[in-house]
Write a structure and sequence with these properties.
It is built from 6 helices and 12 strands. The protein is of the alpha+beta class. A hairpin with a 6-residue loop joins strand 1 and strand 2 (about 15-20).
Length: about 240
Amino acid sequence: MTYSIIARCPRTGRFGVGSTTFSMACGRRNESVRPNVGVGKSQAFYLRYVDPLALNMLAQGYTPQHVVRTLQADDPDFDYRQFGIIDRDNNVVAHTGPGCGPWAGHTVGPYYAAYGNGLAGPQTVAGIVSGFLRQPEAALEDRLLLALEGGRDAGGQASKGVPRPERSAWIRVVDRLDHPEIDVRVDLHDKSVTELRRVLGEFKRYRDYYSARCAHPGDAIPEEEFAAGLGAKAA
């Protein structure tokens, strides 16, 4: 039971992925997105090597469509896999095998893919897309979060008609540097998407401070002093 959104920002070229699931610590899988290359995010009965392989092939110039054909030829259980792939030319593909279980499906847009399995129904994927498209000028990380919230509010996950909570969630966004710009996660929480919004909001307050501290360590103030200043402003 997982639903995800992958995207390439048409304005900035940044790549990002957002995902939430009933399982714990889904954000431990950080190999799904690579700067200047693309996104390859697999789920359902996933194989851990698939995402790095997809990204390696994109980096070598293969199209997402070719990557899918390669994965299919190499996997006798391809019908149990679900994934989405985007390259730096905005080519997008998604696959949902018939063995991913009810309900599973995907939607592909011009620079994004939304998909999930173990969902309440197609309305969850529709909610992901609606949330993602709601604020087209927003930063990519905000749009990914809106997408996860949209999927949750549309019905989210369910098993045999019984709703299942999103217990872990994560968002990762990369630009042109080797390290991610945004990498936030909630590993275990009954309302992980709600908690993810809080964590992302808190990180944004610190982001410029962390960048300045690394670039100009001699001028950096202690973090507890910076935090105290934030608290004073909030008061």
